[in-house]
Design goal:
By secondary structure, the chain is an alpha/beta fold. The chain has one domain (7-170): Rossmann fold (3-Layer(aba) Sandwich), CATH 3.40.50.880. 32% of the residues lie in helices and 21% in strands. The protein has helices at 17-29, 76-80, 84-95, 107-113, 128-133, 158-170; strands at 7-10, 36-38, 43-45, 51-53, 56-57, 68-71, 99-103, 120-121, 137-138, 143-146, 149-152. A seven-stranded mixed β-sheet has the order 5-2-1-6-7-11-10, sandwiched between helices.
Length: 173
């Protein structure tokens, strides 16, 4: 079966379990290829103990081959945002016209990639000030679509987050 394209899902230590697996399954259901992409380790355990095997490494990805990237939350974004290769991947996908989606603490990666200024976004309340200080307009909504950027707050917002991602992807060439 042909895929609708590839959406990289970033994973790292203590990722938020539901924020990885729910988008992965919804995007796959819609026909996308969704490799779990890490930055060194062959596998990680989620905050709640669910294991994931890394399918690709960030350094091995060609951003031109991606229709989008998803940055889930948990504690993983704090580690991933320190890796220049992760930031370059996210920035390049954005600059090339792809979707960038993030939930909970995931926007930390988008902040460090330098792509949030002037955007309307949401996140976990815990990083509201980080987004505001980086130049985004933070709003308290389940999911926010601003052009090709999709953000959401917490796991209970995952259905709205998935709908936002699928709507954006349907509008991309």
């Amino acid at each position: 079966m042909a895929t609708a394209g590839t959406i990289a899902i970033l994973v790292g230590p203590e990722y938020e379990d539901l924020e990885v697996w729910y988008p992965k399954l919804r995007l796959e259901e819609a026909g996308f290829h969704t490799p779990l992409v890490g930055n060194g380790a062959p596998d990680y355990a989620g905050k709640w103990g669910y294991p994931c095997r890394v399918e690709r490494q960030v350094a091995d990805l060609d951003p031109a081959s991606l229709r989008g990237v998803v940055a889930p939350g948990g504690w993983a974004p704090d580690k991933l945002r320190r890796d220049p290769a992760v930031l370059a991947l996210v920035r390049t996908v954005w600059e090339r016209g792809g979707m960038v989606a993030s939930i909970c603490h995931g926007p930390w990666i988008l902040i460090s990639a330098g792509i949030v200024r002037g955007r309307r976004m949401t996140s976990s309340l815990g990083i509201r000030d980080d987004l505001t200080n980086a130049g985004a307009t933070w709003v308290d909504e389940a999911a926010v679509v601003d052009g090709r950027m999709v953000t959401a707050r917490v796991p209970s917002d995952l259905p709205a987050f998935a709908r936002g991602m699928l709507a954006v992807l349907a509008g991309l060439p």
